[in-house]
Amino acid sequence: MPLPNGFRWGVGASGFQTEGALDADGRGRSTWDVFCAEPGRIAGGDSPAVAADFYHRYATDIALVRDLGVDLYRFSVAWPRVQPSGSGAVNAKGLDFYDRVVDEMCAAGLRPVPTLYHWDTPLPIEEDGGWLNRDTAFRFAEYAAIVGERLADRAEMWIPLNEPSVLTFLGYATGEYAPGKRLLFDSLPTAHHQLLAHGLAVRALRAAGATGIGTANAHAPTWPGSDSEADRGAAEFYDVLANWLWSDPILRGRYPDEDLATVMPGPVADDLEIIATPLDWYGVNYYSPFRVSAASGEEIPFVPTEIDGPKTGLGGEINPAGLGEILRAFPKRYGDALPPLYVSENGTSLSTVEEPDADDRVRDQGRIDYLDAHIAAMREAIEDGVDVRGYLHWSPTDNFEWTFGYAQRFGLVHVDYRTQKRTPKDSYHWFRELIKASR
Ligand code: PNW
């Protein structure tokens, strides 16, 4: 069965991972600038200072994405470029950069999909408590209005916050990502404040004339490490924390359980009304299933299950069926309250070396296999009636993979970080043919 008419293909990337130019044109510092400068945080001591140099080479990358034949280009606007102090005065040069990027995309026939926040918090905001501080949600909404007013005439779809769950877990619970706090369950207020920021930003964007407003959350089915009652209990708990804590407030206007609702700060019932402001679409970012087992006598009651079988470069499980399962879970859980779905991120890094060979070919068959299987799983879900309207590949070019640095490559296009030369990989050509065939 062919994909539904009008099915949309795209790519996605983020500012901090691609732009470099961290001191350019009055940009303020972010939590990730500081975090990366701490010894031992980033594999190989890699620096985000230049990354894929998107700040200067955006026209090249936009042309490569145009030639791929997709129509959506997801990118992120860096809050510290637009408001270096996180509130108040706008840095015109920072905002102008995104204006140029959006113009370039439109001129190439691509539809811009801005993400407003992909984890790069302005440092002064973090110094005031970051997402532990309720005020951050209101400051974020002000920033959203500024970007909305500037880009609403040309942006096709909007993502206020990318994967707030990952920021809460890795940024505030375990401290593996910036801002590096290890608060365990005391990190939960950052969930509520990010959800509130999402809702306030949806309203601010609409007031600025923006349409096509959605979100992009990390989701995956949660499977227990064994059939034991303890493991099943751990998986059920993890499922609530990793999935439904983030989507129930948005799609149902409530927290998935009462205990969670009671630990959230502020006028939670009133906030939930804002958080549940209807969306035009909902984005699922999927890479690997969640597998957890019970942990006893630990601070956290679950541990990731050892996996066997094929793994991604990051060590995650390759399991395309997981994408189908999580996509089917959404209409089951939300029924008519569910807006159209998008796969807003899917892709992989490889455990094999990816470098251009003597003929300048990058033979990334592992990525082709991953994409082929995941796109097939998505198609099956669509055939079963799940309303999925588009698929965005993460990512157009190789980029800075957070604490893993440059060793983990997610691009369809290889970046030589010494020369900034771009080389489309085998997967780029494969994806282009797939898109062509699907039209
Ligand atoms: C996403 N998980 O992160 C991010 O949005 C991207 O910036 C990143 O480059 C990409 O995935 C690849 O890693 C995730 O634990 C981090 O489920 C963690 C999870 C999912 C996505």
Automatic annotation (TrEMBL):
Molecular-function GO terms, alphabetical: beta-glucosidase activity
Recorded family membership: Belongs to the glycosyl hydrolase 1 family.
Active site, renumbered: E163, E345
E.C. designation(s): 3.2.1.21
GO cellular component labels: cytosol
Name recorded for this polypeptide: Beta-glucosidase
Residues reported in the UniProt entry to bind substrate: Q17, H118, N162, Y287, W394, E401, W402
Keyword Hydrolase: yes
Swiss-Prot/TrEMBL keywords: Carbohydrate metabolism, Cellulose degradation, Glycosidase, Hydrolase, Polysaccharide degradation
Broad class of enzyme this protein falls into: hydrolase
Signal peptide boundaries: none
PROSITE patterns for this protein: GLYCOSYL_HYDROL_F1_2
Cell cycle is among the record's keywords: no
InterPro entries attached to this UniProt entry: GH (IPR017853), GH_1_N_CS (IPR033132), Glyco_hydro_1 (IPR001360), Glyco_hydro_1_beta-glucosidase (IPR017736)
Biological process per Gene Ontology, one example term: cellulose catabolic process
Database matches in NCBIfam families: BGL (TIGR03356)
Catalytic reactions on record: Hydrolysis of terminal, non-reducing beta-D-glucosyl residues with release of beta-D-glucose
